[in-house]
Design a protein that fits this description.
Number of helices: 0
Strand content: over 45%
Shape: globular
């Protein structure tokens, strides 16, 4: 199983980023997928998740209305669009599968998002 995130970077507050997670080694189209993040000095936090078909989505309240989760089952790829970024969104963002709370069976290596002026 492989999950490889990309798309992070350094951006100014109010700007946008789009994260991607390319997966392999399991049947992506049958799998509920997750984005989590870990800010400096803090624990892992569930950000958003999406059902296998994409019709059901969850957002952590602090990101609802600003982040958009999506998936392309033909490409085995998970996405997270981050809009109106705030300094408190600074974290390493991970994609993951088979999560129970913040405990996930598989997780990628993460991509760093830094929001700073």
């Amino acid at each position: 199983v492989h999950l490889v995130e990309s798309g992070g970077g350094l951006v100014q507050p109010g700007k946008s980023l789009k994260l991607s997670c390319v997966t392999s080694g399991f049947t992506f189209s049958n799998t509920w997928m997750y984005w989590l993040r870990q800010a400096p000095g803090k624990g892992l936090e569930r950000v958003s998740d999406i059902s296998d078909g994409g019709s059901i989505q969850y957002y952590e309240p602090s990101v609802k209305g600003r982040f958009i989760i999506s998936r392309d089952n033909a490409k085995n790829t998970l996405y997270l669009q981050l809009h109106s970024l705030k300094t408190e969104d600074t974290a390493v963002y991970y994609c993951a599968r088979e999560c129970n709370g913040n405990n996930c069976r598989d997780r990628g290596q993460g991509t760093q998002v830094t929001v700073s002026s």
